[in-house]
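Q: Could you predict the 3D structure of P-loop containing nucleoside triphosphate hydrolase protein?
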Amino acid sequence: IFKDAKSAEFLAAVGDKKSLSLLGGLPEVVVTGRANVGKSSLLNSVIGRRDLFSPARKLFAQGRTQTLNFFRVGSPPGRLVVVDSPGYGARGRPEWGALFDHYLETRKQLCRVFILISAAHGMSATDEAMLSSLDAQIQSLDGTRWTLQAIITRADALQTNGRAQINKIEQDIFRISPTCLPPIITSCPSKGITFGIDEVRKSISHACGIV
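A: Sure. Here are the predicted structure tokens for P-loop containing nucleoside triphosphate hydrolase protein:
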């Protein structure tokens, strides 16, 4: 489903709870993470486009990054939807979190939540809080609706002792969130070797029940 990159397209930017009900039908995955964790670069690489998820595009001007942004993947009518959520942390706002929580609690077609952790910066206090919250929601649902997986981004930024830093992040993930699936280590620099993208694609397809 990721071979035809040109067929991927933006569907809608949703900024309020009522508008969520206007979209639906296809299985969904949502991606969250701190601001500047490399979310746009990762998603563009997964879809196979250079600018579909780029905040610099006109589509995201005038505060569009404050919304849940829905993108259809696969030739029409599509196979699945990737949802890009606002970055959390110092730049986040309470109303963004309220919309995201509502989405997690009510979205029946949601199959998996991906949380992005920066390899270079490691686990922050806000990452820990988000991961802990997601884990608690999964446990309250008995794992019957959506699953959780971490993606470690920008592994290319690591130099000396990089493996030890990755191991520390993995240990922190499993300590904070026992329900989290094994993390995927990725790198998608503008220049250099890209890796981990096929694993992310496989995980998305598997979560959505697409072979």
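Q: Anything worth pointing out?
A: DSSP finds six helices and seven strands in the chain.
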